[in-house]
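Order emerges. As here.
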Amino acid sequence: MRKYIGELGLAVVAIIWGSGFVASAVSLEHFTPYQILAIRFLIGIILLSLVFFKKLKNIKKSTIIKGSIIGIFLYLAFALQTVGLVYTTPSKNAFLTAVNVVIVPFIAFFIFKRKMDKFELFGALLAIIGIGVLSLKLSSGINFGDLLTLLCAVAFAFHIFYTAQFVKSEDPVLLTVVQMAAATVLGFIVVLFKGETNFAANIEGVSAVLYLGVFSTTIAFLLQTVAQKFTSETKAAIILSTEAFWGMVFSVIILSEVLTAKMAIGAILILVAIIISETKLKFLKKKFRKEAV
């Protein structure tokens, strides 16, 4: 039962992140990318500290160290993704970011010598193909932005992997609080370094950033950290990769984008990838056994 609760939680996270594409598009009209990162993480640390302030007195040194590690990976991933978007197309940026779903099982294999589950690995590869069909447009060559986005995928993969490891021995709430604090500090250091200290915006811009801060950051990352306590890192990466699918859904509903056959095929491939990873095709094995009998 806990496993399914964890997977449902990660599915909700993917839905929230998918809806965040619209808020990101609006907020970028009023703030710089680095300002958005700093503000959304600041909102996260403030809200989490207010809600769970009683827990903060129980924070351990190990939690601070581990939370800081995943917080650094988190900020690096978002920063590399943001800068990469300046030099490449949004579709390639989204696709290359999602490559983290394939990187995660290899991290587990090389660092912990963990045997790769063939169904999860196949599901991860199929998810990547689905995301590629869903979002990728043919364009020439690999540019600087593509390389930065690939590094972003590596950072996200390490974030997912180490979150799964650290949450086994640490309080997920406190781990999330420290993670947000580390990302906030890095965010404002970068903003100050770049001299982007003028935060002027109207109600539309503020509302969009508030949505990103409250839902896409605070609620989503708290839920992700708690949910990963009950599932494997590879399966978590596959479920979180459905963010691309939900981004498509919300773009069609809210931004009135036209649903194409290419988008539908990509969505189906992602769904099949999750089914394979989740069930390991046990239902087919049972069917063949019955027919054999």
Notes: Residues 2-292 form one domain. The CA atoms of residues 126 and 273 lie 5 Å apart.
